[in-house]
Structure formats: structure tokens, C-alpha cells
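Slide 14.
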Amino acid sequence: MIKIPDINQFSIELLNNELEPTSINPSLLSTFQKIILTTDGTLTELLEIYLHEKLKIVKLGEEMFPAEEAITALDIKTSHEIMRRRILLRGTISQSNWIYAESFIVPDRLDEVFRERLIKSQEPMGRLWLERRIETFKEIIDTERQIAGDLSQYFQLKPEDRLLSRTYRVFSNQQVIMMITEKFPESYFL
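Slide 15: predicted structure.
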């Protein structure tokens, strides 16, 4: 089997359903941080309103590989083909990176046109769902406060600074089509 390439320990634990949900003290968050972590909507439009600028994606990587083992969160068995996609949501005016997102996608559960647009376009996933009129249901499965580590380079932070994140599964046609983790600096959106 092919090993999952360049994947951090958080993602491995989450994919294998071994991560215990971590509590974030809501009283320490701004109202907008709470909205980001709990909304079942797409972040792109919310962030554009809050930030007063359009956002674009910057693709950091996309790879396909067979799952090394069954992944409960994606409802797949060993060897099922999955795609890992890593992106940044960046302001078109400020050129600031606002969100880092990592998705694990089950491509054979997506409509062919959506799958192609996902791979070839520079559009955020939420816009693609709207464009294709894909009905989705999102289930938040974790929120976390963690050290930025290697992701600090994208936000001009120190590695020991903190990020907030949410992880959710996306369902369409009553099956899991992907799992997405979105992370942003704790110092953002105060």
C-alpha cells in the first residue's frame, strides 16, 4: 500500500477516528470566531463579508492514493481511492492567508463535472457546490486549539502560536463525500 504523503499526525489520528474532541473555552472566543467554528455553512462568503475583500484559493497540494486502512469518518474500506487537498484562502487585496484547509475526498462519490472542476479550478469548494447546485449536509465532528507548528509559515506566526480549527464531514446523497479541517490563527477575527 502507498503511505499517505506529507500528512501531519493530527490528520492521521482524525482519519483513524482516534482523536478525542478537545474543548475550546467559548468565553475566550470572539463572536465571529464562534461563528466560524460552529457554522454549518461555507466560510468563504462569511469571511468575504467580514474582511471586506474577495477570497481566492491557493492550492498547496492535491494527491490521490488508496487508503491504507478503513477510515470510519469517511465510511470507506482499505484500498478505497481518496484525494487529499490542501489549500489556503487568501485575500485578493490584502494578500493575507486567512484559512488553511485540508480535505480528504472520496472522488468516486462526486459527480464527474464537480470532480473535474475541483481539480482544475481555483474556486473555493463552497462556490463549486453552489455552481453545481449540490445538496450537502455538514456534520461538525471536532473543534480544536493547537500549536501552529509547520502551518505558522502561512500566517506569519511563530511555530508555538496557536490555531483554532474545526473538522466536519460533508454528506451528499446520504453518503460521506469528504471530510474538511479548516484552521486559522487564534489571533484572527477578534
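Speaker note: Confidence is low (pLDDT under 50) at residues 1-21.
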